[in-house]
Amino acid sequence: MKNKQQMSLVVLDMAGTTVADGGLVEQAFDAAATRLGEDPATMIDYVRATMGESKISVFRHLFGGDEQRAQRANLAFEEAYGELVADGRIAPVPGAAEAIAQLKDQGRTVVLTTGFARVTQDAILDALGWADGLVDLTLCPADAGGRGRPYPDMVLAALLRTGAVDDVRQLVVAGDTSYDMLSGVRSGAGIVAGVLTGAHDEAALKEHGATRVLSSVAELPALIREYEGEYEEGEG
Fold first, then answer.
1. For 209, left (φ over 0), alpha (ψ -120 to 50), or beta?
2. What is 9-20+91-235's CATH superfamily?
3. Cα–Cα dist 139/13, whole Å
């Protein structure tokens, strides 16, 4: 018999999940590499494979642990991405803001997380008009010790900072990348939902732990209701 489970905390990724950036991550990476005299073609496969990871971690790997080069590259990337955002090249995933509003109406706490630095995250939130009141908390890797995904740190920081749940199984994690799925699994979340609006396909999301794969985050409120209903039926 299942126990009733109220999914009280929802942790959502930004780019590719709630924010449609139209490939801006790759464009910003290309621009940053070019500005630094690097060849982006030699690095792009790794960048694609590690979508969702903290960007400074990506650059540390690419430059073999050379911290100075990694920091320069990360700064150039954040600047290039910020320029694209300022140019109006970003929009919400259709239905994302409405889904967040539904989740909050259902009494859930909603947190947005990202692999970007805080300055870029804030630029995105400002550009979308999401800076005030849309969600309960926003987190970047630096807010949770600096490691970012695929570690569970941001998800667990959301739990600790909001105090919304007392059991990790009451967590919902949703994202568009393999690393989003890994961070959800490693946090112990009851629902780890992949969405198909971003970087990785259904096979990759399931391979890395997705318990469900959705066409869009717009489907998430209904999925959570369905999941909770299964527990209620089990009690009966």
1. left
2. HAD superfamily/HAD-like (3.40.50.1000)
3. 10
How would you write the pLDDT of the chain (236 residues) with one tens digit per residue? 234 578 999 999 999 999 997 788 888 888 888 887 887 777 778 877 777 777 788 888 888 878 888 888 888 888 888 888 888 888 999 999 999 999 999 999 999 999 888 988 998 999 999 988 899 999 999 999 888 889 999 999 999 999 999 999 999 999 999 999 999 999 999 999 999 998 889 999 999 999 999 999 999 999 999 999 875 555 54
Closest CA to 43 of 62, 24, 23: 62
d(CA 58, CA 222): 35
Contact 220, 11 (CB under 8 A): no
